[in-house]
Design a protein that fits this description.
By secondary structure, the protein is an alpha/beta fold. The protein is built from eleven helices and 16 strands. β15, α11 and β16 form a beta-alpha-beta unit.
Length: 345
């Protein structure tokens, strides 16, 4: 089968690899129909210390179940499924509390990798996989895009809003205009926010955020951006959704909130530490981490997509065959694409 690897920093290529096999009773082998490039993949793509031939960090897919382990009872060969980037068990305290993204039983082994390929072995599949009604041929390309968004970016944006406890009438600021930030706008609107400010400096991303439900755009950063947000809202925000993963974006989130505000952070952190002591005088509530993909899909998001209530697939602004994966990465890295879709037939 074809498998994407990082050929060198700033370059991705395809190699021939053995098709994965069942190794555990909770495994499923999935033939990929659609996968994509995530903003978090770009961190590895750019990493100057990355070793050539490193397997891709891709982790989002929809596909067809080809084979299942002996303990799998929830899906069968031929089923069309979402393969979340997380692999919760559904039974531990964390999963039962709605935090399957950090399953107690699968610590250190809860995230997918190597999904930019023709086939994957999906571990802990019995609860984590999400079955989609019918077959890929039953859906439009636009709907397939939205179903793929449910593997990561839509649940991740929703997670930011949920852990920030966005409520009807809230004033919300979204920091990060990539696919996750765009989906955080969708989520804030779903949860009833009255005002949603997207902090963005790119015209195409601003336009998409407004289409998704943002009520204002702020392009400024730092103190100037904070002042602009507060001017628009008539004070600080109730919730800030941090979808980048840098210390600067956390500082921005802290700055736009009123005292007693709430942060939901879902950008994978690329900073060593950040002092929480500075938030004491503000009574800020901070929550975040890996999204509860399976929980959210089963409870609300899959139905919302199938009903046409949300259309997160619009974050995919360019499409490529797997053979053009290097271009897919380049276009995202150069901000020519919000999110790159990879089509496998």
């Amino acid at each position: 089968m074809k498998l994407a690897v990082y050929a060198k920093p700033g370059q991705v290529g395809l190699v021939e690899s053995e098709k994965p096999q069942i190794e555990d009773s909770q495994d499923a082998i999935i033939r990929i129909v659609r996968t994509c490039v995530c903003g978090s993949d770009l961190w590895r793509y750019r990493d100057e210390t990355m070793q050539p031939g490193t397997r891709n960090s891709g982790h989002e897919a929809i596909g067809i179940v080809e084979e299942v382990g002996s303990d799998i009872t929830t899906v069968k060969p031929g089923d069309f499924v979402i393969a979340p980037f997380t692999h919760g068990c559904g039974n531990c305290d964390a999963c039962r509390a709605g935090f399957d993204g950090t399953c107690d039983h699968h610590i250190g082994d809860n995230w997918s990798g190597g999904v930019q390929a023709e086939y994957i072995r999906f571990q802990y599949a019995n609860w984590a996989l999400v079955k989609i009604p019918g077959q890929p041929s039953d859906y439009s390309e636009g709907m397939l895009k939205s179903l793929l968004a449910l593997a990561d970016v839509m649940p991740t944006g929703y997670h930011a809003a949920r852990v920030a406890n966005v409520k009807p009438g809230d004033k919300v600021v979204v920091i990060g205009d990539g696919a996750v930030g765009q989906c955080a706008v969708i989520a804030a609107r779903m949860l009833g926010a009255s005002q949603i400010i997207m902090m963005s400096r790119h015209a195409d991303r601003q336009a998409l955020a407004l289409e998704f439900g943002a009520t204002a755009i702020v392009a400024e950063r730092g103190a100037e951006g904070i002042a602009k947000v507060r001017e628009i809202l008539g004070g600080g925000a109730d919730a800030a959704l941090e979808c980048v993963g840098t210390e600067a974006s956390i500082d921005q989130a802290l700055g736009v909130l009123h005292n007693g505000g709430r942060i939901g952070y879902v950008g994978v952190p690329h900073y060593d530490k950040h002092s929480l002591g500075s938030t004491f005088a503000q009574n800020i509530t901070i929550g975040g981490g890996a999204a509860s993909v399976t929980t959210y899909n089963k409870q609300v998001l899959l139905k919302a997509v199938l009903d046409g209530a949300i259309n997160p697939g619009k974050v995919f602004t360019t499409s490529y065959p797997l053979e053009e994966i290097d271009q897919a990465y380049q276009d995202m890295d150069q901000r020519k694409s919000i999110k790159s879709l990879l089509i496998l037939e």
